Amino acid sequence: MKPSPDSSPLQRLRRLAAHPEFRAGAREISGVAPGLAAWGLMTGVAMVQSGMSTVEAMAMTLLVFAGSSQLAAIPLLLVGAPLWIILATAFCVNLRFVVFSLHLRSYLIHLPRLERLVTGYLTTDITYVLFVQRYPQPGQTPEERIARQAYLAGNSLVNWSNWV
User: Fold this and answer.
1) CA distances from residue 9 to 114, 125, 147 in whole angstroms, order as listed
2) Alpha carbon distance 75, 81 (integer Å)
3) What is the 3-state secondary structure (H, E, C) of 69-94?
4) Going by C-beta distance under 8 Å and a sequence separation of 6 or more, which residues neighbour residue 124?
5) Does the reported pTM lie above 0.90?
6) H-helix or E-strand containing 40?
7) Residue 38 needs a FRET pair 20 to 30 A away by CA distance; which of 1, 61, 92, 161 works?
């Protein structure tokens, strides 16, 4: 079931945030949030210590949102490696997200493309694991799909805000 065309992404996000599963997702990841924040801080410090400006490190954090790729890219940036090598390295380090995406396809295919892209950007190892543990099967009804999407949104937004 596709959302109605008159419903903006912001309105849909507000509806998801009001759903009880949004809070459940946020609550479940809260236990590891301090560790996520520490990992994000350590990665940011490593980027700045390698010679990146704070603005460059923040931009990389927002654009890449993958700590392993960021840490793999730092030494390559330092030695002036060609951009294609840096991108290829990041791609290889993050191949697991292709597997995550293939598995989550049946959960998210009903969403508009923009929402699928944002969900893909926000989904990390920990959010994926928590999500599939709670929901081993895609929702069959519109209510089940919304509950799953709300849970993943709450989980992912807490994760993202702790990282950034």
Assistant:
1) 9, 25, 17
2) 9
3) HHHHHHHHHHCCCCHHHHHHHHHHHC
4) 65, 66, 156, 159
5) no
6) helix 33-49
7) 92
